[in-house]
Amino acid sequence: MTELERERFDREYFDRFYGSAKTRVHGAGEIAHLCAAVCELVAYFGGRLESVLEVGAGPGLWRDWFRRHRPQVRYRSTDASEHACARYGHERRDISRWRARGRFDLVVCQGVLPYLDDAACAAAVANLAAMSRGFLYLEAPTGRDLREVCDVQSDFTMRGRSARFYRRLLAPHYLTLGCGLFYVRGGELAFYELERA
Q1: Domains of the chain, with CATH numbers?
Q2: What pLDDT digit, counting tens, does each position of 152-191 carry?
Q3: Model-level pTM?
Q4: Cα–Cα distance between 68 and 26 in angstroms, integer?
């Protein structure tokens, strides 16, 4: 992601897609349900949840939920946007060029990959996998999603790739569990055949 692309995620972008109830993608209530669901699925599958990395943390809704409901979890949040980092207190990182030294029980990457070009997207997935000790929660709207699922307020500057494109990048690194949840290949947990896509 170039500097120009990173700066597209300015105050106006965050006000539109997270600040206004009329145009936001989702608010704290929706993210609270999602956080609780992901954590419960991790627990159900027998996973531990001591550390979380959020990539593209935006307004910090996941972080806020973890602070309230799972304060013992070590949480690290990053974003490529200078505005988001200054306003919400994240580390400024470009996932296509950066990977942490440590690994995390849960990596969250919501709405980031569609903004990257193909090469940067592939690098980002490799970096996410290198930092995964357990689960990945990934949201990446596809071209079909942009046409048939997303509303007219959505940001159509996202790249509308096929689901097959993302699955091809993820398959060497992760098992697909469904509902945006993936588990790192070679991890210690086992899954029933029908729990996997």
Answers
A1: 3-195 (3.40.50.150)
A2: 555 557 788 999 999 999 999 999 999 999 999 999 999 9
A3: 0.86
A4: 19
